Amino acid sequence: MKKNSILAKRYAKALFQMALENGIVDRVNADMELVANVVGENRELRQLMVNPVVTSLRKQKIFKSVFEKHLDKLSISFLNILIRKGREYEVAEIAHQYLQLFLEHKNIVVAEIVTAIAVNEETSNRIKNLVANLTKKEISVKSKIDPAIIGGFKINMEDYQYDASIRKVIDNMHKEFDKNLFIKRI
Length: 186
Fold this sequence. Notes:
Elements: H1 3-22, H2 25-41, H3 43-50, H4 56-67, H5 73-84, H6 91-105, E1 108-115, H7 121-135, E2 138-145, E3 152-157, E4 160-165, H8 166-178
Parallel strand pairs: 1-2
Antiparallel strand pairs: 1-3, 3-4
Helix pairs in contact: 1-2, 1-6, 2-6, 4-5
């Protein structure tokens, strides 16, 4: 594991413990989702975080102006501590680590369901129930459309992938034919 991700995990655990003690785990989770999204989408903010010319006091003021109205006091205080400690470049990774801790705490597995076309709610729920029965955990579904799979579906979750797509069947057929099991007779 990289030093930065170990550091991010430690900070995330500390924030999670504080949120747990204050009974605001869900609220801080929403805050960390927002922080991760804003930092991920805003190139200027990311550049500001790694700019050594900008003082930590100035960075705190900028973070406060961006997030103060949207985040809990604990989250704001936490961000200020990160900036004072010179760890603002880790904000996005810490937020992602917090989100993982939250999912583990709530016993939730995120399953990405990939289909060729948008599926109706009934089909999505059937797949969700199938995965829930396999994992014995609550499932959070993220849908993705990928016309390249032609039909069927793929499920990606944690380190597990189930591929029931037409593309997979076609690829397997190509592999079988490439083995040259059939002798051509002209």
